[in-house]
Design a protein that fits this description.
- Helices cover about 60% and strands about 0% of the residues.
- The chain contains eight helices and no strands.
- The chain has about 170 residues and is mainly alpha-helical.
- The termini are far apart.
- The protein is elongated.
- It comes from Lacipirellula limnantheis.
- Pfam families: Phage_int_SAM_5 (PF13102).
Length: about 170
């Protein structure tokens, strides 16, 4: 009844047909390029979206509204076989960002990923020198650099942080 009254009043607006996956991706990439994102970041996002399109084709999915939790699980499983956990997490964030972009641009009306939680990837252990390696480096370094290397080794500071430190008393 309400629909009929809107139609008769001329105020009924058909909801937009959900956008195609490839169209939403193209629009999102164009937007990123216009925001002066680095070429490397855009290259990584394009690679992620190539896989999205591949998996969507395999599953017979055309519309962005069809990218749901099951799709994300399939994507995660595919990428987990070939990539590091941090890469998989970054890709899932990229997919979520694209869906949010599509919602903002009204390419879709409902969030197909509503409630999706992306677990943070475990931290990658960072390599460090052994005490013997530190001593070798300090023994072979010339005096102006010994204090600098000693400071880095025993404080855990980054090189850029050490540049600003006063090493005069070391």
């Amino acid at each position: 009844m309400e629909l009929e009254s809107h139609i008769l009043a001329g105020s009924h607006v058909e909801p937009p047909k959900p956008s195609l996956i490839v169209d939403a991706i193209d629009e999102y990439i164009k937007c990123l390029c216009g925001q002066w994102r680095s070429e490397n970041k855009i290259r990584k996002k394009k690679y992620c979206f190539r896989i999205v399109v591949q998996i969507a084709d395999e599953r017979g999915l055309l519309r962005l509204s069809q990218i749901d939790h099951r799709f994300v699980d399939a994507y995660r499983n595919y990428r987990s076989e070939r990539s590091k956990p941090k890469t998989v997490t970054n890709d899932l964030v990229t997919i979520g960002q694209m869906v949010n972009f599509a919602l903002q641009r009204k390419l879709i009306t409902e969030d197909p990923l509503h409630g999706l939680q992306i677990e943070k990837a475990p931290a990658t252990p960072q390599p460090f020198w052994t005490a013997g390696q530190v001593e070798q480096i300090l023994a072979s370094a010339k005096p102006p650099y010994q204090a600098y290397f000693r400071f880095l080794a025993y404080t855990g500071a980054h090189a850029g942080e050490a540049i600003w430190a006063n090493l005069g008393g070391c």
